[in-house]
Amino acid sequence: MNSLILRTGTKALVPVFLIVAVLTLWRGHNDPGGGFIGGLIAAICFALIEKAFGVEEARRQLRVPPMVLAGIGLLFAIAGGVWGLIANGVFLSGVWPFYAPIDGSWQGLAVGSILLFDTGVFLVVVGVVSAILFALEEAGIPENREEDS
């Protein structure tokens, strides 16, 4: 697509969407939201780039092949589950190593196995959605079929 408005809007919106995606991921490991919704928001960025600048530019901006990104995310998600299994004896149970009670109050960052799992889901969603969108665009399916008219 060769639209000046789409290209300009994409340049302005992509950084905002990526910040919102990361904030949704960060907020979601304690509240509703998290890796899935954040991953969809991030995937919107690459869909916009792909529509405005083409698949090659979207792949270049993603920097990692989409299915490799999904595989890394799957490893993160499994690691988050195994971490809970090792620490608590239950797969996917929450482990909070940097959040310990001191003087009756909780101190530190709320970073643990749940955030690792959500980050894995985030990467899987971005990778799989991007792979699907890139494959559809590369298939070259025409938007307007004149033979159907």
Walk me through the structure.
- With 149 residues, the chain is mainly alpha-helical.
- α1 runs antiparallel to α2 (35-53).
- The protein has 5 helices and 2 strands.
- It has helices at residues 4-28, 35-53, 55-62, 66-88, 113-139; strands spanning 100-102, 105-107.
What's the structural blueprint in terms of helices and strands?
Blueprint lengths: L3 H25 L6 H19 L1 H8 L3 H23 L11 E3 L2 E3 L5 H27 L10
Antiparallel strand pairs: 1-2
Helix pairs in contact: 1-2, 2-3, 2-5, 4-5
Helix content: 55-70%
For the secondary structure, the number of strands is 2
**Could you spell the SSE succession in H and E letters?**
HHHHEEH
Question: How many individual helices?
Answer: 5
Q: What Rg is obtained from the alpha carbons, in whole angstroms?
A: 19 Å
Mean pLDDT: 86
Based on CA inertia axes, which overall geometry fits?
Answer: elongated
Sketch the major β-sheet. Answer: 2 strands, antiparallel
Low-confidence stretches: 144-149
Structural class of the secondary elements?
Answer: mainly alpha
Q: Strand order across the biggest sheet?
A: 1-2
User: Termini distance?
Assistant: 22 Å
What is the percentage of strand-forming residues? Answer: under 5%
Short description:
It contains five helices and two strands. The protein is mostly helical and 149 residues long.
Which features characterize this protein?
single chain, mainly alpha, 149 residues, elongated, 68% helix, 5 helices, disordered C terminus
